[in-house]
């Protein structure tokens, strides 16, 4: 196998996908289509959004809350 062929094989099996998901009814549901085969096993890493992590820690007015949420969405 050529070096280029090996790189293509390794990329296929060592792919990282960043996707948002929502947890509903004890199931993690992707918010977009994923390039995976039915039944394919994957390893996931969970990162909560900053707005979820900060929820309830301090009181803010609605305008500030919306600003923080918009900032969080623009960074992801």
From TrEMBL:
Name under which the protein is recorded: Antitoxin
InterPro entries documented for this protein: AF2212-like (IPR008203), AF2212-like_dom_sf (IPR024069)
Keywords: Toxin-antitoxin system
Similarity comment text for this entry: Belongs to the UPF0165 family.
Gene3D superfamilies: AF2212/PG0164-like
Known function: Antitoxin component of a type II toxin-antitoxin (TA) system.
Pfam families: AF2212-like (PF01954)
Superkingdom of the source species: Archaea
């Amino acid at each position: 196998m050529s070096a280029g062929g090996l790189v293509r094989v390794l990329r296929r099996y060592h792919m990282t996908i960043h996707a948002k998901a929502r947890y509903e009814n004890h199931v993690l549901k992707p918010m977009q289509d994923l390039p995976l085969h039915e039944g394919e096993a994957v390893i996931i890493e969970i990162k909560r959004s900053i707005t979820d992590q900060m929820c309830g820690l301090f009181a803010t007015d609605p305008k500030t809350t919306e600003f923080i949420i918009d900032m969080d969405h623009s960074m992801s």
